[in-house]
Specification:
- The protein has about 190 residues and is mainly alpha-helical.
- It is built from 6 helices and no strands.
- Helices cover about 85% and strands about 0% of the residues.
- Helix 2 packs antiparallel against helix 3.
């Protein structure tokens, strides 16, 4: 059983590192762009959600050894990809701030629910339960922030960028924690 935990941590840290990189790209795009218009926001959010969703679908099997967690991650990836496509469609159709608020709120709600559900069934031997709760809470704050600032695109896009930055940093910390934890565990197959 110990071998399964070690190999799971070794696989899941890479999945989390990819997730962190995608969030970091979104945060950097928002941070260093003077344009916080609805169209810019829809573009960044759409690409982020689509890429994150596809990544979730493709790497779900590496994220856990628990079948329920794998299915939940894969389902979240499918829905996230759909939200990303909706954001891109809204951009192409020239929809404005209202569409941006709905898309970001959907991403935040989907992320919060997924993270809270994953926290209920953590991977054995890893610190991920608390990490899922924290990421779920930060995503819930994203929803609240976007809904409170629904009439100001600069704030809405900025809140998304801030959420992406916090998510990127925290997810990368979790990824390296799992990596280092996996590196420290002896492999029982090598040293019985």
């Amino acid at each position: 059983m110990e071998h399964d935990i070690t190999s799971s941590a070794a696989r899941s840290w890479k999945t989390l590192a990819v997730r962190a990189a995608l969030a970091a790209f979104a945060a950097i795009a928002v941070t260093f762009s003077p344009d916080h218009s609805p169209s810019f926001g829809l573009g960044v959010v759409g690409v982020f959600a689509l890429a994150s969703g596809i990544s979730g679908v493709l790497t779900a099997r590496n994220s856990s050894t628990n079948r329920g967690s794998i299915a939940l991650t894969r389902s979240g990836g499918v829905v996230g990809s759909a939200v990303g496509l909706l954001a891109v469609a809204a951009l192409v159709l020239g929809l404005g701030l209202g569409a941006l608020v709905v898309v970001i709120a959907a991403i935040g709600a989907l992320t919060a629910v997924t993270e809270f559900l994953l926290a209920r069934n953590p991977e054995p031997g890893t610190p991920t339960s608390n990490d899922h709760r924290i990421l779920g809470s930060v995503a819930a704050l994203l929803v609240v922030g976007v809904l409170l600032a629904h009439d100001n695109s600069v704030v809405v896009v900025g809140v998304f960028g801030a959420w992406a930055a916090v998510t990127a940093v925290f997810t990368l910390i979790t990824a390296f924690t799992l990596k280092w934890e996996g590196d420290r565990r002896p492999d029982p197959m090598v040293n019985p």
